[in-house]
Write a structure and sequence with these properties.
homodimer, mainly alpha, 76% helix, DNA-binding
Chain lengths: 210, 210
DNA sequence: GTCTATAGACCGATAGAC
DNA sequence: GTCTATCGGTCTATAGAC
């Protein structure tokens, strides 16, 4: 088994256990056992627990970014992209009801003003907001794009907590339907390309995303 | 200093530290130090850490219940009661942005299927939902009352996480304005007492709350 | 009732043999 | 690179003097 494999296994086990049991409640011994690697060996790959946690959360960050790229590349309609993103959380509703959102959990658990792990987790939510903002912008809602994007992610996070509290995944399913309905109800205020013969109306929406 | 005073101080210190630093990250030594009580003495009042945590979260539960009673007794309009409840979270936006919601944090942190502390925290959210459901019911939205109440609490929880992630309390303030606007926009579908000469239309809404 | 001292388990992290 | 053994520290919880 290669060195890279063991490192990857450690990161994956850490990500799972942090999600299921929380950051501070998960020990390095737990992670090593889950990855089937002797505890002392962990420190060959990561100098501290924080470093391993950072690698775990960074991996999640990249996975989400890859998902946004996939949506952007395969769906031409920004509205449809948003709806598919919402449907993702519907798909993982059982897992989120049981364990909470892996990102929201870390943000809730740690100090976002000092802890670099929590700050990286916060970036994951920030990435979603930036991406969603871009989609709302492309629907012509330039002024409200950031507010809408934040409301959307807040709706997902809030639904997860309510579902976990009541141990009822239908809470997430109902809230995701509500959010999809909301996104569907938004008018497309964007100037249509064909109708006025412009090629770069997207530029406004794109510059609005940073 | 009386025995009851020391017990109360321990519970209050525990509630504060659990909110600020999290349940599993707060040690009994931290709590004892904050309450200015020797560590060994803690076990005279509480047999285990869980027992102290349960007392702390139960106290919060009662404080919130008292607040609902205060709203019910002083505001005749259920819509106004809901708006005042939302405004509470606007008032504590700075604290929630920094430390998260004291209830949501515990639910996120612990296993709601096994941990009795997390289950009590879940009851606090359940109490809010029941109370809000009653208000929506009294506005005549009997069929949607529970869904509306859950969406409202989810909006508050989600806004808190987004605010903590971005370290920007204006996120909570904006989302609370959105929720107030939403509550204000709901029509009053309730049959008016004076107009049809009935005295007990409330009964339907009240039975809907359980 | 109050407090000191400490047991016993577990934590993150390190040293060093192989 | 890999793993065992273990250190020093902190945790919950207890024993027992006052």
């Amino acid at each position: 088994m290669s060195t890279q494999n063991k490192r990857d296994r450690l990161v994956e086990s850490a990500a799972i256990l942090f999600h299921h049991n929380g950051l501070s409640a998960t020990s390095l011994a737990d992670i090593a056992k889950h990855a089937d690697i002797p505890i002392g060996n962990v420190y060959y790959y990561f100098k501290t627990k924080e470093e391993l946690a950072l690698a775990a959360i960074s991996k999640r960050k990249e996975q989400f970014s890859a998902a946004y790229r996939l949506l952007d590349d395969n769906l031409p309609d920004p509205r449809q992209r948003l709806i598919e993103a919402i449907r993702y959380f519907d798909k993982v509703s059982a897992e989120y009801t049981r364990y909470g959102c892996p990102i929201g959990k870390i943000i809730d658990d740690a100090d976002t003003e000092k802890d670099t792990v929590a700050q990286t987790a916060a970036q994951v939510l920030g990435d979603f907001v930036s991406w969603a903002q871009q989609q709302f912008g492309q629907l012509g809602h330039n002024d409200d794009a950031q507010t809408y994007a934040t409301t959307l992610m807040a709706g997902i996070q809030g639904a997860t907590i309510m579902a976990k509290a009541s141990r009822d995944e239908s809470v997430i399913k109902k809230e995701m339907i509500r959010l999809v309905t909301w996104v569907e109800s938004l008018p497309n205020k964007r100037i249509q390309l064909g109708k006025i013969g412009m090629r770069n109306v997207d530029a406004t929406a794109a510059s609005n995303a940073a």
